[in-house]
Structure formats: structure tokens, C-alpha cells
UniProtKB/TrEMBL annotation:
Residues annotated for Mg(2+) 2 binding in this entry: 117, 120, 280
Family: Belongs to the FBPase class 1 family.
Positions annotated to bind Mg(2+) 1: 93, 117, 119
HAMAP family: FBPase_class1
Signal peptide start-end: none
Catalytic activity of the protein: beta-D-fructose 1,6-bisphosphate + H2O = beta-D-fructose 6-phosphate + phosphate
Chief location: cytoplasm
Keywords recorded for this protein, A-Z: Carbohydrate metabolism, Cytoplasm, Hydrolase, Magnesium, Metal-binding
Cofactor: binding details: Binds 2 magnesium ions per subunit.
Protein name: Fructose-1,6-bisphosphatase class 1
EC number: 3.1.3.11
Subunit structure: Homotetramer.
């Protein structure tokens, strides 16, 4: 049983002993993410002071202006994961193609692949709003000893072995799951140690916060419009509260602690939704389900979607189980009209 204020290192060792069959590689993987997060946190926390908040001038595969901190975070996570002989491949939201990691002996012996959004919500950096790193871990499906292929990355979210995020906010937290619940660790920057501050995080079944960019209302599917009217009606426990930071990690983190639903639906601008299935939806869906919540595309479970492309997008409804199910009800009703 996890003990509050345990360090992340102690937690990983304790959990490693609980799963003797695992070779310890996953624990080492989480440890390397922990280290990279500390390095990135140091830069994020002084972004206003150092000229690295300006756009890098380049644009990523999504056509979005790359901020220098995006580029820095991407490089740090790739470098840390590559140097530790744990993963055989990395796919990043910031890179067009996946990266093959041969290992020191060029033998492709490592068995995990990592997919990540190195700095999500980066458009908020220069307005000093929390941003985050999101990561997702799978076992490779092609034979160990051969170079990874696209098949190793295009796995449905229900095959994730770990997922988590780092939120660089008023405090820096690492929140992750390996399929046995969700635990949150807060970094003490003075000594560079993460402490278990939020053991066994849970989405409340119900909530009264909805997070959506209502600026896109005119483009929303009818079911979303109907659900928003339900949220805003003055009856029973409603109207709900609208809270939208525009940084997925921050909105989901708040909703996990207070209860709520986050929705990024399809729209005329984003016919398949804006969020990326592999780097944002699947890891957040794994965390949500492990915390007793739910994540769908408005109709079907996000983690059952078989990806076809590395950077594909999906509509995303995620949070308190009863709120997601109510939204799905409105989506279904509108579809059958
Ligand atoms: P919009 C950030 O770019 C992001 O991917 C998520 O972090 C965030 O929730 C969403 O997009 C914000 O998108 O269109 O509301 O600005």
C-alpha cells in the first residue's frame, strides 16, 4: 500500500517488488522520464527569463509554430530515453517520423516503445500558463532483435503498459499509471526529489465542471450543443461551471482532482477532432480509466480505436464517468435524429 510522502524512487522499488515477473525495465523507464522531467522543469520555470519562449521559427508536423521550449523538451526526453538502453523506439508529436533506437550493441534488444507529446499546451508558455508532457508506453509487437516498425507504434490504447503526464504548474507533478491505479508525485525542486502527494487518484463518478472551447460552438456537432445546453440549464445540480485553460494536461488534472469532463469534439476546422490519438487521447484515457473515469470519442471507447497513422486525431470526451456517459447519450440521440 503506497504511503503518502514516499519518494518516487521508493515507490518504484516497492512496486517493482510487487511485480517480480517484470524485468525492472519499466521501472527504469519511469525513472528516466522522472529525470528528463526535472531537466525540462528547470527550463520551463525560467522560460520568462531566458530567450527560449520565442517561437523557434520552425513548424511541427501539425503545422503549428514550434516554440523553442517545445524543441528543447523534445530533445531532452529523446536524449534521456535513448541513453538508457530501455526503449527500442520513440514517436513524438514534434517529429514527422518515429525514431529507431538500436541500443549500445546495435542489437535492438530493448522491448518498449514510448510515444509522447513533449510539451503540450506550448502556446501557453509565453503567457505563463501551465503546460505539460504526456507519455505513453507499449511493449513492442515485432520481434526483439529487429528494428522497430510502424506496427510497434500503431497499437490500440488498450495495450498500453504505462502512461502519464508531468504538469509544470504552480508545482511540478508527475502523475502516472502502470495499470494498477494512478499516483501523483510532487517535485521538491530544492532537492530534486518527487514525493507521493496524491496517492490513488480518482475521478469522482459525477462532477460539475465542463471544459470545452466554446468559441467553436457554431461548429460543434448537434449532440455537443445539446449536452452544453444540459450543462447550462438551471435545474437540479446545474448549471455546471465552465473551466477551460487550453492546456490539456491542466484541464484534465483539475478535473481529476475536482470532478469534471473535458471535451474536444470534431468541428468543421477539425473534422476528426484536434487532439492526437496516440500522444494525447490514449495516455489520458488510460489514466482516466485507471482513476475510475471514462474516455471516448463521443461514441466508442478511445482505447479500443486501432490507429492507422502516427499523427491521427480523434474527438475526445474524458472525465467523470457519469458526465461522459451523459454526453454520449446526447451524441447518440442527435445521431439517431
Ligand atoms: P484550442 C494544446 O495545443 C492542445 O493540444 C491541448 O493541450 C488543449 O486542450 C487544446 O489543444 C487547446 O485547443 O483549439 O482550444 O486552443
Amino acid at each position: 500500500m503506497s504511503k503518502k510522502h514516499q519518494t518516487l524512487g521508493e515507490f518504484i522499488i516497492e512496486n517493482q517488488q510487487a511485480f517480480p515477473y517484470s524485468s525492472g525495465e519499466l521501472s527504469r523507464l519511469i525513472n528516466s522520464i522522472r529525470l528528463a522531467a526535472k531537466v525540462v522543469n528547470h527550463e520551463v520555470n525560467k522560460a520568462g527569463l531566458v530567450d527560449i519562449t520565442g517561437a523557434a521559427g520552425d513548424t511541427n508536423v501539425q503545422g503549428e509554430q514550434q516554440q523553442k521550449l517545445d524543441v528543447y523538451a523534445n530533445q531532452k526526453f529523446i536524449q534521456t530515453l535513448t541513453n538508457r538502453e530501455i526503449v527500442c523506439g520513440i514517436a513524438s508529436e514534434e517529429n514527422d517520423e518515429y525514431i529507431t533506437i538500436q541500443g549500445h550493441n546495435n542489437d535492438h534488444k530493448n522491448k518498449y516503445v514510448v510515444l509522447m507529446d513533449p510539451l503540450d499546451g506550448s502556446s501557453n508558455i509565453d503567457v505563463n500558463v501551465s503546460v505539460g508532457t504526456i507519455f505513453s508506453v507499449y511493449r513492442r509487437v515485432t520481434p526483439v532483435g529487429t528494428p522497430v516498425t510502424m506496427e510497434d507504434f500503431l497499437q490500440p490504447g488498450n495495450l498500453q503498459v504505462a502512461a502519464g503526464y508531468i504538469i509544470y504548474g504552480t508545482s511540478t507533478m508527475l502523475v502516472y499509471t502502470t495499470g494498477h491505479g494512478v499516483n501523483g508525485f510532487t517535485l521538491n525542486p530544492a532537492i530534486g526529489t518527487y514525493y507521493l502527494s496524491h496517492p490513488n487518484m480518482k475521478f469522482s463518478e459525477d462532477g460539475n465542471i465542463y471544459s470545452i472551447n466554446e468559441g467553436n460552438y457554431a461548429q460543434f456537432p448537434q449532440g455537443v450543443k445539446d449536452y452544453l445546453k444540459y450543462c447550462q440549464a438551471d435545474e437540479g445540480d446545474r448549471p455546471y461551471t465552465s473551466r477551460y485553460i487550453g492546456s490539456l494536461v491542466s484541464d484534465i488534472h483539475r478535473n481529476m482532482i475536482k470532478g469534471g469532463i473535458y471535451i474536444y469534439p470534431s468541428s468543421s476546422k477539425y473534422p476528426d477532432g484536434k487532439l492526437r490519438l496516440l500522444y494525447e487521447c490514449n495516455p489520458m484515457a488510460f489514466l482516466a480509466e485507471q482513476a475510475g473515469g471514462k474516455a471516448s470519442d463521443g461514441f466508442k471507447r478511445i482505447m479500443d480505436i486501432k490507429p492507422n497513422e502516427l499523427h491521427e486525431r480523434a474527438p475526445f470526451f474524458c472525465g467523470s464517468k457519469n458526465m461522459v456517459e451523459k454526453a454520449e447519450e446526447f451524441m447518440q440521440k442527435a445521431k439517431t435524429k
